[in-house]
User: Fold this.
Amino acid sequence: MVFWDIVRVFFPKVVLVALALFAFRLVVLTLLEKRNPAHVLVYREVLPKDILVTFVIGFGVFPISNFLNRWIAYEPELPRLVMELPLAIRIVLYLLIGDLGHYWVHRLMHTRHFWRTHKWHHAPTYMYWLAGVRASVTQVTLVNLPYIAAGAFLAFSPWWIFWAIILKNTAQNDFMHFNRWWGNRWLEWFIVTPRYHHIHHSDNPDHYNSNLAALFPIWDHLFGTYVDPDTVQKPLRFGIGESVPPIRLFIGI
Ligand SMILES: [Zn+2]
Ligand SMILES: [Zn+2]
Assistant:
């Protein structure tokens, strides 16, 4: 009994679920990528480091950012008319407005003064499902702002919405960094694909500040930051070409 009490204290249900999900992603996604990777990668060299980074993000960056967001996030109260819309419509509005805000926060982080908040995300010189896990405290705090504001559409929603959003965010991040040249022009009118986001990480100056969208590519088309993946020269190379002290990458300063 004492043993299980200790397990329960140190591994609450949410941590156990996260660990199980991570093990599933580790096996299934790595195997899927290895069938036909977009870029050659020695997984045993990058995985141990990135698993450590994942723990730093989960137990360091996320709690600190959540704490900061409590002080600076804005949660509007929406009119009753909006709140009476069907849940499916409110979910679509949440995704559209949150993603539009994410696009502009991302664009801001690619400007000279805010680049330091986002460097860590672009630091890896390789691309695969776990490469996009890096995000500084300042990046996560800033990116959370539009989603918290858009979260007003989901007030009074069923309990599972919270878990669905966490799952969607995880799947989205895994997918856009996936080490396969997946995607086509038709699909890329609707959703960001791996090859679409790989261009965003490219170290080729022609690709700087391009394909900034996180979920809906329409923002890149509307705001002039779209680069067609069919027109780029492969293979792409990644990274920021400088070494920055880890603590500065972590905080984003
Ligand atoms: Zn970026
Ligand atoms: Zn990325």
User: Anything to note?
Assistant: The chain has one domain: 2-251. DSSP finds eleven helices and no strands in the chain. The mean pLDDT is 95. Residues 121, 132, 177, 197, 201 surround zinc ion (ligand 2) (CB under 6 Å).
